[in-house]
UniProtKB/TrEMBL annotation, chains A, B:
Taxonomy of the source species: Bacteria, Bacillati, Bacillota, Clostridia, Eubacteriales
GO cellular component, one term: cytoplasm
Protein name: Ribonuclease J
GO MF term set: 5'-3' RNA exonuclease activity; RNA binding; RNA endonuclease activity; zinc ion binding
Domain Metallo-beta-lactamase: 21-216
Cofactor detail note: Binds 2 Zn(2+) ions per subunit. It is not clear if Zn(2+) or Mg(2+) is physiologically important. Binds 1 Ca(2+) cation per subunit. Seen in 1 crystal structure, it is not clear if it is physiologically important.
Record: residues binding Ca(2+): G49, D51, D445
Species per Swiss-Prot/TrEMBL record: Desulfosporosinus hippei DSM 8344
UniProt keyword annotation of Hydrolase present: yes
Length: 558, 558
């Protein structure tokens, strides 16, 4: 390896480590920076009102002129969803396979179209020069077509990032994972492997997507009424299999839900989704007039999302499609952790209507897109890396990956457990942590990017728990001090006030007490008076109700 | 059967149907009412700020003088947790087995002690007269000792309610489920079976609790440092097995977490938990000075509850017990749907510290306490009821139970799928739905029981999403109209205001516009002015931010 000036390669995860979501990896060597992916993450429950979370890219903005390109592994939201916010700030070339870029461009065009000159379609196996790096994509199998991992040939050695993958020996589109290439690189020598660790806690191997096709077919054949299948919009393989099965048994297909329509249209346009007959797709406006036993509806809503099409059908609030008794609803996805209750609600609504509901528990209508333990071992054995860096996982998954590494003879020092902003420094024979870079989360709420932070969220949490109480009073500005009007008490989200007359009277008395104690002073300290009102009333309401609403004193003076 | 005046037996679920939680069943025949259980339910996510949910017992309050008694199946929160709120309103005799009543009394004494004269310990197999009913408890196996189901011999026939059960042929305490009694009643003739349907979607049979003991023992033997085991406090069998295993390998035991301490103390006191050696329990104050390899900590927090002991240990905020690298944490429970993310967080914190975490995925450290499909079939076959009523389940579980019934030859008309407040009327040869009774949920928030309803919750949801904006202005009361002070804008939970000067200026202008349009009228309509300010400002803020904070106009006039 060219070891000029003993420079080191830095690997910096700005997203996707210690968490599932918002993947963004940075590779840096002297004047060259290469970025992989730019995803979103869906907000945790306590991030009230937040729509999306993207990585903090301050470090990239500061080093923009050194960035040679952004390479994308595949078209899932947690890998491309942040790009509409990230790319306009960086204005850098982007690289990806055809379907991936098709999905990215559909997404960018909704917000700001990105200059065509910066968008580069790549083919796996064709190396691309990006500063000092030679970047080469290799095919992986995953729950979306055209997914790749990347090899970066760097001055200190080759580094491989798998991207999201499973080892599916019978992929729906016939494109196998390029295990041969991984083995060849392994023979040449690989410095470090960054590997998908999502399923590192799961023993054995994942099941091929092909099995889902067989199972769907069996269920479809049994269906009496309409079939409605909910899945992730991006699972083009599964959608292809559902379309094939429906076509075979003489059903037409209606695609509903915005993201499902987007992905299906893009995939058909680019040739990744093949329709077995012409005119097999029908618009949702025609569903009402079709015989139910001649119909398959492909829909979003597999996660019970309140506004998704299936959820609206289940609650009878979809404009065009009704679920009827005897319809079969196939939930061809598992709930992402945190969504179990929402999904359960949808299922209950469907049973209430009298539909038959098919879930993963009743047969393999969903399989994971991520590698289990034995697949991870395979990739490690093929690439024979000197060092291991688990990526795409929470701490538990990183720890699970470390155990796998240990079982293959790696010692703790050879495995880097990173956090957001960690800088892993690699030289041909050493891996160590360097100085951390700025990293974290940026919250998106409505049109606001980053204007909702810790304090605003804390306030929302308090408001969510116990509501707000506004205290209004007008006081004379100068002596003799007196209360000119009020105090009045307005509350929202606190208690059903009509039943709380005594509580309000007590609250008013408490406020008057705080005001009169200030009147005794030579000069009214308005700031102190407000905080006295707040403290005293808060204590009073806690004693009476065991609740702590937010108290906002509004004082006017004349 | 005595069919005088052709009266019917009514079965009315006031809780526990169409939902998991707050079980409460009512049996009514002419002047006799018998109630079974009075549980709580933990609030859904959208019930912001709500602590607990209990059944609406308006119907029982209105018919109080006809209630002959309340019978309790077992000591789980979803069967007894509502009693501190329900019993003071009814003042009726209660019946239950010894441990169950011990747990109920511990709970009642925290709030209001219940008159001893109304509390009756019963033995399975001893019939109790309650109005026209002859009530007899029979042993079931479940994840807490001393659990029973009830048979009610009524003028129209025998009705059996299983309570929560599984068929465990090797129960830890040696008390088998009384299948013989069920068979005998089946021979005599059973009118209806109300059956636990929680696991009706799961094929096969549940695994015996005994297996958990074996698996725990294996893990415990492997542990190098402290062992910390988190489980439901009420799972006395599992706690017994953990204590036995710890004792065998020479570890002392520390019990932490309020509910765990309560249950363990009550169980030891009443003889349901047996300590294999004296002085095997140590107080948490001594944990710090013990060798970690000589210690087992039994703790609450298996659901990731933010304030539970394990959660505090994992975030290093427990006063006396620290998790150290090399400690083993056994999660001897599965997350209740909805708690997956919280549990995942705790697990990640534990890995971060460097602890080994053992979950159900790595070995049978948890088994369900509810009957799977084959066990449900067994109970139906033994009791041979004329009619089936699934209880203790959401709609999906009731539908699953119906499928089981169908597989045994029951037709839809023989299976009643109830909702809260349904009245199922039974005569010796007929089951039909009668007039519904008042039923639903009562929310408990702090000291308030029922004062937080739909409007308050809607307000909390809006506040949680986008915060609150208070608009304050003082106007002259009469002509010439002018703005004496303001408008001022105060917001909380909306946006980080320091960066929003332009937004605030725009908002003020918008409010001034609304006010001045009112000034043009002959007389200011204060109500209309407030709603104009609200509508116009809401529109303005939506356009600028895509958020809808709650807007509270406060207008003073002089």
């Amino acid at each position: 390896m060219h070891n000029k000036r003993a420079s080191k390669l830095s690997v910096i995860p700005l997203g996707g480590t210690g968490e599932i979501g918002k993947n963004l990896l940075v590779f840096e060597y002297e004047d060259s920076i290469v970025v992989i992916d730019g995803g979103v993450k869906f907000p945790e429950d306590e991030l009230l009102g937040i729509d999306l979370v993207i990585p903090d890219i301050t470090y990239l903005e500061k080093n923009r002129e050194r960035i040679k390109g952004l390479f994308i592994t595949h078209g899932h939201e947690d890998h491309i969803g942040g790009l509409p916010f990230i790319l306009p700030k960086l204005n850098i070339p982007i690289y990806g396979t055809r379907l991936t870029l098709g999905l990215v461009q559909a997404k960018l065009q909704e917000k700001n179209p990105y200059p065509e000159s910066l968008v580069h379609v790549i083919e796996p196996g064709e190396p691309i020069r990006a500063g000092v790096f030679e970047v080469e994509a290799f095919r992986v199998t995953h729950s979306i077509p055209d997914a790749v991992g990347y090899s970066l040939l760097t001055p200190v050695g080759r580094v491989i990032y798998t991207g999201d993958f499973k080892v599916d020996y019978t992929p729906i589109d016939g494109y196998n994972m390029d295990l041969g290439k991984l083995a060849a690189w392994g023979q040449e020598g690989v410095l470090a492997l960054l590997c998908d660790s999502t399923n590192s806690e799961r023993p054995g191997v994942t099941i091929s997507e092909k099995i889902v096709g067989k199972v769907l077919r069996e269920w479809f054949e049994r269906a009496q009424g309409k079939i409605i299948m909910a899945s992730f919009a991006s699972n083009v393989h599964r959608i292809q299999q559902a379309i094939n099965a429906a076509s075979d048994i003489g059903r037409k297909i209606c695609v509903v839900g915005r993201s499902m329509e987007n992905v299906v249209n893009t995939s058909i346009e680019l040739g990744y989704l093949k329709l077995p007959q012409e005119n097999i797709l029908i618009p949702s406006s025609e569903v009402g007039s079709m015989q139910p036993e001649k119909l398959l509806v492909l829909t979003t809503g597999s996660q019970g999302e309140p506004l998704a099409a299936l959820t609206r059908m289940a609650t009878r609030s979809h404009r065009q499609i009704n679920v009827m008794p005897g319809d079969m609803v196939v939930m061809a996805a598992t709930p992402i952790p945190g969504n179990e209750k929402l999904v359960g609600k949808t299922i209950n609504h469907l049973y209430q209507i009298g539909a038959e509901v098919v879930t993963k528990e009743m047969g393999q209508v969903h399989v994971s897109g991520h590698a289990n333990q034995e697949e991870i071992k395979l990739v490690i054995r093929l690439t024979q890396p000197r060092f291991l860096i688990p990526h795409h996982g929470e701490i538990r998954h990183q720890a699970g990956f470390r155990k796998i590494g240990q079982s293959l003879g790696y010692v703790d020092e050879d495995i880097a457990i990173t956090q957001l902003g960690s800088r892993v420094e690699l030289s041909p024979d050493r891996m160590e942590f360097g100085e951390r870079v700025e990293a974290g989360s940026v919250y998106i709420d409505g049109l606001g990017v980053g204007d909702v932070g810790y304090i605003v969220l804390k306030d929302r949490q308090q408001l969510a728990q116990d509501g707000v109480v506004v205290v209004v009073a007008a006081l004379s500005k100068s002596k003799p001090y007196k209360i000119l009007s009020g105090p009045d008490i307005i509350s929202r989200g606190f208690t059903f006030m009509k039943e709380a007359d005594a509580l309000i009277d007590g609250a008013k008395k408490d406020v008057i007490g705080s005001i009169e104690r200030q009147f005794e002073k030579d000069q009214i300290e308005w700031g102190a008076l407000k905080s006295n009102i707040r403290d005293s009333l808060s204590k009073y309401l806690w004693e009476k109700t065991r609740r702590r609403p937010m108290i906002l004193p509004v004082l006017l003076h004349y």
